[in-house]
Design a protein that fits this description.
The protein contains 14 helices and five strands. By secondary structure, the chain is α+β, with helices and mostly antiparallel strands. Helix 3 packs antiparallel against helix 5, helix 3 crosses helix 6 and helix 12 packs antiparallel against helix 14. The radius of gyration is 54 Å and the shape is elongated.
Length: about 450
């Protein structure tokens, strides 16, 4: 039974197209095998007949392919001959063109160079904001003349001349027109702007800068000082009459350096904590000096009025000293002298009050400046230790603090010294008047006693 099943499977694999059903016994298996062999033989004979009938057609296709190959080889040979002849003729024509051009070749070379340089200059010119697209035309002309052997036309040569003449003409004009301006906040708005030659451009009282590589302008993020901006307003508000204007002949380089300069507030910030302490002491000293100046002025006026009066008044130091003689009418000369000295000593603290504090500030301020200097140099040396001396910006913070605190200390100390000297002189004059009048009272009492 196993052999029967194996033979059946083999026959089914060999005669799968012709077997309709699985054989039941060996006779049916043999019959099906015979029929399959016969069908396969008939199929092979049909295939062979089909191949023989197509042999003539295959030979015709081969002959056509060979003929086509021969024609293409002949065409290739002819084209190669024409190509070599064209190359020879082209070389001869180029030599003839070079000989006939002569000095024109140098002219077009100079024209190409001038067009390229002019395009670069116009790209960084404020005039291109009013007349956009000039640099692109010249750049295209320079590239066309450099990448091909084509000669420039008369119109193209005139375009280069016109661009140069226009730039020179516009450099001497003040023009007003509308264009898109990028504000410091990033917003783009269309507004009237004033162009001063090829040097500067302003709008709404602010200076503008040219965005590199474009024909657009933007407001400077940081504007120069008010004395420069006031001239901008005068230019925008003025008519044809001459006005004062801060002009940057470099086209923005000096202006860029000017706006980078730190303001007074930024310089004070560089002084850090020590700088603010110095300024705080200076402010306190200034307030004290102002109070002393007003007090001594009023006091001096009252003393002068008291000198012109015989009756002593209680509202001024001299009057209070003069009241001592009325208080002790029968005292002897020595006792009265002591009482007057006592009264003067009571008035001196009121006259010289807080002057010592002003003097202390004038001495301490330079010392605090020195402290800030030392601290700043320590920070500088620490930066050098960590990062080396390759980048000066790393050391700029410490050096700025060192210099700014010294300056702040001197700025506070010098006025405090002058104020102390002035106020001290006034207070000494008042004390001298009190002592002088006290001596006069003692002399008068002594004469009466004699």
């Amino acid at each position: 039974m196993k052999l029967k099943h194996c033979l059946s499977a083999l026959v089914l694999l060999m005669t799968a197209p012709v077997l309709a059903q699985e054989p039941v016994n060996l006779d049916q298996l043999l019959q099906q095998l015979k029929e399959g062999k016969f069908a396969q033989s008939q199929e092979n004979q049909a295939r062979e007949a089909r191949f023989r009938s197509q042999a003539a057609e295959q030979e015709q296709i081969l002959r056509d392919a060979i003929a086509k190959r021969d024609r293409l080889e002949a065409l290739s040979s002819r084209l190669e001959t024409e190509f070599e002849a064209n190359e020879t003729e082209l070389a001869n024509l180029e030599d003839a063109l070079t000989q006939r051009m002569g000095s024109l070749k140098e002219l077009f070379g100079v024209l190409q160079q001038v067009a390229g340089d002019t395009a670069s200059n116009l790209q960084n010119s404020y005039v291109s904001v009013e007349y956009p697209g000039r640099s692109e035309q010249l750049s295209d002309l320079a590239q066309k003349m450099g990448s091909s052997a084509k000669l420039a036309s008369i119109e193209e040569i005139e375009s280069v001349w016109y661009a140069l003449q226009q730039e020179m003409t516009e450099s001497g004009k003040v023009s007003k027109f509308d264009t898109t301006v990028t504000l410091a906040s990033g917003e783009k708005v269309t507004k009237p702007v004033v162009r001063v030659g090829t040097f500067n451009m302003v709008a709404d009282g602010n200076y503008l800068e040219l965005i590199p590589g474009t024909d657009a302008v933007a407001e400077l993020v940081r504007q120069p000082g008010s004395r420069y901006l006031s001239t901008v307003e005068a230019l925008e508000a003025g008519d044809k009459s001459p006005v004062r204007f801060a002009l940057d002949p470099t086209g923005g380089s000096i202006l860029g350096l000017l706006v980078q300069a730190p303001s007074i507030g930024e310089r004070i910030d560089q002084g850090s904590t020590v700088g603010y302490i110095i300024l705080g002491l200076g402010l306190i000293g200034l307030l004290i000096a102002l109070e002393r100046f007003v007090t001594l002025t009023l006091m001096g006026g009252k003393v002068k009025r008291q000198l012109k009066q015989q009756k002593a008044q209680q509202d001024n130091p001299l009057g209070r000293v003069m009241l001592v003689q009325d208080k002790y009418p029968n005292a002897d000369t020595e006792t009265l002298e002591l009482k007057l000295s006592e009264a003067i000593l009571r008035e001196v603290p009121k006259i010289t009050r807080n002057l010592t504090f002003i003097k202390i500030i004038s001495v301490v301020a330079p010392l605090l400046g020195l402290l800030g200097t030392v601290t700043g140099m320590i920070n500088t040396f620490q930066a050098i230790t960590l990062f080396g001396t390759g980048d000066p910006k790393l050391m700029a913070g410490g050096i700025s603090q060192a210099l700014v605190t010294t300056v702040l200390g001197l700025v506070v100390a010098i006025p405090m010294t002058l104020l102390f000297a002035t106020l001290n002189t006034r207070s000494k004059n008042l004390v001298h008047v009190l002592q002088e009048q006290a001596s006069g009272i003692i002399a008068e009492r002594s004469e009466r006693g004699q």
